[in-house]
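I hope you will forgive my troubling you with a question about protein structure. The record follows directly beneath this note:
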Amino acid sequence: MAEERGTDQRSSDSPMTAADLKEVSGYQQPSKQLEWVRENLKLEPAKRRDGRPSLTWGVYSQALLARRPGSGHDDAAMKSTLPTWKRPV
């Protein structure tokens, strides 16, 4: 007997649906969803025919992980790890 997956379990390579994009971004309009992805995930996704961003769950998850403090990908964390060289006087 094959094991059934629940509807809340998503594969990392499965595309986000229009409902998924609305849920994660909080916006229904494709242009607002695209703007949200650019600002919050720092991605420039391809656009679908309907104007919505084309993302997979894996890309979305990786973008969220990259924005976590200490991941080395966010600006504040990068600035705090750079050396501060000073010339000897």
